[in-house]
Amino acid sequence: MKNKIIFLILILLFILTYPVSALETETVTELNYQVIESYRHDPKAFTQGLEIFDNNLYEGTGLYGKSSLRKLEIKSGRILDKINLSSDYFGEGITILNNKIYQLSWKENIAFVYDLNFNLIKKINYSEEGWGLANDGKHLIMSNGSEYLYFRNPDTFELAKKIKVRTKDRLIKNINELEYQNGFIYANIWQTDYIIKIDAASGKVSAYLDLSGILKTDYTGEINVLNGIAYDSTNKTFLVTGKLWPKIYRIKIID
Question: Which of 75, 119, 145, 202 has the greatest number of CB atoms lying within 10 Å of its CB?
Answer without folding.
Answer: 145
